[in-house]
């Protein structure tokens, strides 16, 4: 089912008002800069309480304004509820059916949303930090308790770094133990999830890219080979002298890396920009399929202008491999492509200067 409607107030350049989107597939057509991505962003806000483009809520308020509000009604196979996001006086609040949500973590499994967009290339060719973000997001979507593990690790890491910064080494061995314990648990989860995620990912890659060899994500854990807390403590002890100089923790899951292996080679060294882009889309297909497989629930799919960059064959294959979803929203530039994918169940809007016109 998905979102029946969304109401917008002061959200970026979008006009205030209620937009009916009660259809399994919604197409948003418009020239560049008219507000198509902004609308997808508003749905993401309602799903996760934040943006996929910025960490600053003030940024999404219409220029010159300092407050905004969104609400939407969502129906899934399991549930129906109203979500609200309000931002005023520099404070954001989230509500479900009128009740305040205290922790954004509690939103993670309410409206499982997967976004496809250009910036996703970073998951393949960007910094290790971006790659970790993708892996952590996949884990958090499927196993929300992972968020607690991640928060715990980050807290210990922050405290340990503070000790190093203030040259206060008395307690460091206590923090080493906690860091090892919390970090190993993250490492095991990342190992486990990549093992099963790779099955889905390599299968989708073979089909959509049509290339002969397998592409897999290889996990290069910072504490590679460590199985026990003692193994990790040994590494930490070895690094103590260096860390006292650098005043930061130099090993652990916050330094993990990922490597795309094509057959027995490094994918990035031989891939074209187009292939990197394609793989970033395939990662999202795999993420959505993996979610369905693990949880039995349907995701919401937001596809921001990603079809145009694919050739006809890959585009058809890509579309055919999108998993069943509660709802799919696509943005397109004006032109003919969208007509090829339009079905009887597709609701089409043209967006111009933030205003919606139903076709
Ligand atoms: N906070 C804001 N207040 C008002 N307008 C904004 C705000 N943030 C962005 N905009 C405007 O929104 C427009 C961009 O919209 P959006 O990113 O949705 O484009 P789009 O229709 O998806 O096209 P493109 O394909 O170029 O991304 C720009 O005109 C920009 O000036």
Automatic annotation (TrEMBL):
It holds the Pfam family SMC_N. Its main location: cytoplasm. Signal peptide: none annotated. The lineage of its organism: Bacteria, Pseudomonadati, Spirochaetota, Spirochaetia, Spirochaetales. It comes from the Bacteria. GO terms for biological process: DNA replication; DNA synthesis involved in DNA repair; double-strand break repair; SOS response. GO terms for molecular function: ATP binding; single-stranded DNA binding. InterPro entries: DNA-binding_RecF, DNA-binding_RecF_CS, P-loop_NTPase, RecF/RecN/SMC_N, RecF_2. The keyword Mitochondrion does not apply. It is found in: Cytoplasm. It comes from Alkalispirochaeta americana. One of its GO terms (cellular component) is cytoplasm. This is DNA replication and repair protein RecF. SUPFAM superfamilies: P-loop containing nucleoside triphosphate hydrolases (SSF52540). Belongs to the RecF family. Keywords: ATP-binding, Cytoplasm, DNA damage, DNA repair, DNA replication, DNA-binding, Nucleotide-binding, SOS response. Residues 7-323 form the RecF/RecN/SMC N-terminal domain. The RecF protein is involved in DNA metabolism; it is required for DNA replication and normal SOS inducibility. RecF binds preferentially to single-stranded, linear DNA. It also seems to bind ATP. The keyword DNA-binding applies. ATP binds at residues 30-37.
